[in-house]
Amino acid sequence: MKKILILNGPNLNMLGQREPDIYGHQTLDDIQTMCADHAAQAGIAIDFRQSNHEGEIVTWIQQEKDRIDGLIINAAAYTHTSVAIHDALKLLNVPVIEVHLSDPETRESFRHHSYIAPVAKACFKGHGAKGYLMALDALCKE
Ligand code: CA2
H or E segment at 139? Predict the structure, then answer.
């Protein structure tokens, strides 16, 4: 069975509590449940995690690199700052998909650059929580 690691960066644990106009009303637990249901229907396994710590995300990527068939990442603010996560993702020999709830390119200029994009096969942004399901579907086709 294919195993997909889904990583979420800082502050995404606060989803549903503020800025619903930008990020929607769903909590991260809701998104995890949606992903788990979708994965079960597709016959794949997911491991869904969130961290507010850059180093923890880097460690998770290193630890799981030989155990997964694909990785989905919403690195949140680290998208725009983290060379460390970029370098860790380069260690992977499996497809990486970048996801964002909002479309960062239509927001403040400091959100326009992504350190994830050069190491990602695709990016789903601006589709809300559905973007995670689109990313799962894309990895199922790999
Ligand atoms: O649109 C996305 O998914 C983002 O990755 C979300 C990040 C942001 O820094 C990126 O530019 C785009 C922010 C996540 C913060 O989530 C919050 C949740 C509730 C309240 C406030 C922030």
Answer: helix 130-140
